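Researcher: Good morning. I'm working through a list of sequences from a screen, and I'd like to move beyond sequence-only analysis. For each chain I'm collecting a predicted structure so we can compare shapes side by side. This is the next one on the list. No need for commentary yet; just the structure.
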Amino acid sequence: MAKKQTYLSCLDTLKPVRDALDVINGKWKLPIIISVMVGNKRFTDIQNSIPGITPKVLAKELKDLEEHQLIKRKVIDDFPVKILYLPDIHANTLIPIIDALKDWGLKHREKVFFGKD
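Model: Good morning. Structure tokens for this chain:
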């Protein structure tokens, strides 16, 4: 009986973690979110801030992030028309997660590459 409860509690954690990873998983989503959050608003600025990303992939990923309400697309009706990408309010909930990943990554790098504990 105890094993089944452990299994269920594992699923209670695993399912929401899986849902979160499905939204931000992949090579480009977090770099795009970070780029927009640090102030890159124009498509070309975002692309230039992320080495190796193609315009086609960036367009697709921006659309996905917009559907998940992490990025909002703002069209400024001017001549020429300007399109800006801004972090949606919901993206702010990722700030502590990104900070925690950054801290963990720095500590992990020190431990693995420099043998520091």
